[in-house]
Amino acid sequence: MPASINGDTVTSHGGLTYGGIVSGMEMRASQMLHIFDELLKFLRSHGVKKIVYKTVPYFLHQAPAQEDLYALFRFDAILSRREASSILFSSNRPKISENKRRCIKKAVKHGLTVKQTDDFDTFFKIGEKVLFNRHNLKPVHTAREMRLLAQRFPDNIKLYASYIGDTMLAGVIAFIFPTCVHFQYTFNDDAGLEMGALDIIIENLINSVYPSSTFISFGVSTEDGGRHLNEGLIHQKEMFGARTVVHDFYEIKLF
User: What single string gives the DSSP state of each residue in 215-244?
Assistant: First the structure.
């Protein structure tokens, strides 16, 4: 179980979106109970008072694997946080909304093109401007950090952008898993917003680039540990046919 420790709290993992016990195809429910028992004994012996366990969303599993969820229940874990995430099930999805169809047609009419690129600098300049002007925020990562990650994992992290001529208008960073493609960053500048620049990227990725992916993940639309739902944001994802699944976080108190 990859984990980090801060004071007397262990988190799986403090710097990651999700964590938990990594297991293979041979894992059994009774085995997981034994693993949890030994894990809690070990952490208690080292003065740990609380575990924060970030479950792995089921759509990232390569096989059904929720033995840890059963163990969490058996060891009196408390659900402490629940994020609403939007997922498209590729083989059985609702039709795209008429609004999104119009946006995509508008992008085609304006002559926008979509391609993979390594121009993270331009993409993050768009992102920094959008986040600051619309939300007074900054991106969690920098262009340099994302470029480094993409260079280390070229088959798993890719940037796709839409252009009018040579000018980038919008972009999406896709994280590719065996069962799922996850959209991590989606930025659309003001001109791109008017032309459907982001919509044509998403449509292209869903239908042309990754049509065989079992799931398409649009990410969470909640804030404050899941207590606040950004209705405008999740509506944009639902218009592509995405439905809501939850990403749960648990706590176990050891003393």
Answer: EEEEEE-EEGGGTEE-HHHHHHHHTTT-EE
Query: What's the number of CA atoms in the CB half-sphere (13 Å) around residue 249?
Result: 18
DSSP 62: S
- Look at residue 136 and give its three-state secondary structure: coil
> Hey, which residues does 89 pair with through a beta bridge?
215
Q: Is pLDDT at 135 greater than 80 in this prediction? A: no
- pTM here? 0.90
Structure tokens at 178: 């065996």
**For the CA atoms of the chain, what is the radius of gyration?**
20
pLDDT digits (tens, 9 = 90+) for 87-124: 999 888 888 999 999 999 999 999 999 999 999 999 99
Please list, residue by residue across 57-93, b when 16 or more beta carbons sit within 10 angstroms of its beta carbon and e when fewer do.
Answer: bbbbeeeebebbbebbeebebeeebebebbbbebeee
> What are 10-62's pLDDT values in tens digits?
999 988 889 999 999 999 999 999 999 999 999 999 999 999 999 999 999 99
Residue with tokens 């768009």: 126
Euclidean distance between CA atoms 49 and 70, whole angstroms: 21
CA neighbor of 240 nearest in space, from 160, 181, 159, 175: 181
φ, ψ (nearest 5 deg) of residue 207: -95, -25
Indicate whether 201 pLDDT > 90: yes
Buried b (16+ CB within 10 A) or exposed e, 29-48: eeebeebbeebeeebeeeeb
Question: What is the token pair recorded at 248?
Answer: 């749960």
Among the listed residues 206, 213, 237, 233, the one whose alpha carbon sits nearest the alpha carbon of residue 221: 233
Instruction: Return the DSSP state at 94.
Output: P
